[in-house]
User: Which sequence fits this backbone?
């Protein structure tokens, strides 16, 4: 059964009281957040953000390599001047290797790929690696602060890592 009817009802309730249609395009806090797409993370709530405060970029693992395009655009066109990377405990990205996922695709879909899915083994190191990749990107401003955190899905707390 599709969840779309539920979503449309919820959207009607949301839209009936909506008063934020006049927010400007650039983020008010001039920050971009790169976070994992895990459903247990709500970056806006974790960081105390409201609509219009920040660009929030989500992908599997919160990986910088997947987020780069989405970081370049707001830096060049919308004035973001700080970047925050958030990975989290109990992440599914530590449960497989590229080769295991490629094998699953071969068996389940009959498809071959050499795609890199960017899994990792060490949570803290993955944050440090992504922060460093962002800092070294020649497509981003070199003087923009980049911070990295691990979010604990059991306590709701952020731990600074980089």
Assistant:
């Amino acid at each position: 059964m599709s969840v779309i009817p539920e979503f449309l009802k919820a959207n009607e309730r949301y839209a009936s009281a909506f008063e934020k249609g006049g927010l400007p395009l650039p983020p008010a806090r001039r920050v971009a957040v790169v976070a994992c797409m895990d459903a247990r993370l709500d970056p806006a709530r974790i960081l105390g953000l409201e609509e219009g405060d920040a660009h929030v970029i989500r992908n599997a693992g919160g990986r910088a390599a997947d987020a780069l395009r989405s970081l370049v655009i707001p830096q060049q066109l919308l004035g973001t001047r700080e970047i925050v990377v958030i990975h989290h405990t109990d992440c599914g990205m530590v449960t497989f290797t590229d080769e295991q996922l490629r094998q699953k695709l071969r068996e389940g879909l009959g498809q071959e790929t050499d795609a890199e899915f960017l899994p990792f083994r060490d949570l803290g190191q993955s944050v440090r690696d992504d922060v460093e990749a962002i800092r070294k990107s020649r497509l981003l401003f070199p003087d923009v602060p980049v911070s990295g955190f691990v979010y604990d899905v059991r306590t709701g707390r952020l731990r600074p890592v980089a």
User: Anything to note?
Assistant: The mean pLDDT is 97.
